[in-house]
From TrEMBL:
The keyword Transmembrane helix applies. InterPro entries: EpsH-like, Exosortase. This is Eight transmembrane protein EpsH. Signal peptide: none annotated. It comes from mine drainage metagenome. Pfam families: Exosortase_EpsH. The chain crosses the membrane at residues 18-40, 52-70, 82-100, 106-124, 129-147, 180-200. The keyword Transmembrane applies. Keywords: Membrane, Transmembrane, Transmembrane helix.
Amino acid sequence: MNGPLAAMTDNSVRAPGWVLAVAAFAVAVVVLLVCYWQTVQSLVWVWDHDGSYQYAFLIFPLSLWVAFDLRHPLWANPPVPSVWGLAAVAMLVFVWYAGHLLDVNLVQHFAFVALFPALVLACWGWRALWVLAFPLGYLVVFAVPWGDALVGPLQDFTAHFAVRALELTGTPVLLNGREIITPLAVWMVADACSGVKFFFACT
């Protein structure tokens, strides 16, 4: 059998074991949401109240849509659950707990979101993780509000860049922390000058 019908039939083939594997993953996600509901609320609060991260409301649906679009190559081979996935889950639970004890929201947010790829590895195996690498990586990179951690380094970069530019013009300049001192004026590189919003807008 050749032609579009054959291609459709081939693409619809699902290797055995996926029904149980998907059910196990769904149960694991429900348990994850129940156990870390406060972290979910905290994450959503940041998305909602910080204009830099309101795009993040789209990240989970977009990642899910891309993952669904990859279902045919995903289902082509049977799932092979990996003990390394369970190890990753245990490690991320420890990371989350450390963030909880230290009251560092960024650590808790990262650990929670990173648990999704870990569950994929635990329930479906390495090949599934490879097939879904893009949507899962996209999820971890863009659903976690990293910006606050980037503000300081980006401020430092802006300050050093401005000083270098002034030096190239021959202007006497001194950098004191994030304070730029010239004979005519003193400037402070503020949070807004870090370019975090521009960075996330570009990505």
